[in-house]
Design goal:
The chain is mainly alpha-helical. The protein is 71% helix and 3% strand. The protein has one helix and two strands. The chain has a two-stranded antiparallel sheet with strand order 1-2. The longest helix is centred in the middle third of the chain and has 87 residues. It is rod-shaped and about 135 Å long. The mean pLDDT is 84. Keywords: Membrane, Transmembrane, Transmembrane helix. It holds the Pfam family Phage_lysis. This is Lysis protein.
Length: 123
């Protein structure tokens, strides 16, 4: 019977050592996973911040696109309106023009006068 108690004690010590080893291994694993989780939370917060910034930038670009598209549509409508007016009433189209001064001495006849030219803006 002496050996039976000895085997029981050895078995209990083995179970205790094995349990300690398993618990220690699990504790180290939990610490490792906790560290990984903290790093992932930090990375997630950074990504959230980046996404929020991108969404704000996209909204600003969308607003600019809407504004420029509206301006372009208005300009096209104005060009179309002016084109229609000029086709219907060509005698009533007024273009701002200027007469450049001649570099020669003025003469009394109009034969050598410079011609009227539309301004750069009108062109």
């Amino acid at each position: 019977m002496k050996y039976g108690k000895l085997y029981a004690v050895i078995a209990m010590v083995g179970i205790i050592v094995g349990s300690y080893w398993v618990i220690n291994w699990q504790f180290n694993r939990i610490n490792s996973l906790t560290d990984i989780n903290k790093k992932l939370v930090v990375a997630l917060e950074e990504q959230k911040s980046i996404n929020t910034d991108y969404q704000a930038r996209i909204m600003r670009l969308n607003q600019l696109d809407i504004q420029y598209t509206q301006e372009l549509a208005n300009a096209k409508n104005e060009i179309s309106r002016l084109c229609d007016i000029s086709e219907r009433h060509p005698e009533r189209v007024y273009i701002k023009a200027e007469c450049p001064k001649s570099k020669t001495t003025p003469s009394t006849s109009m034969d050598d006068a410079t011609t009227t030219r539309p301004t750069d803006t009108a062109i």
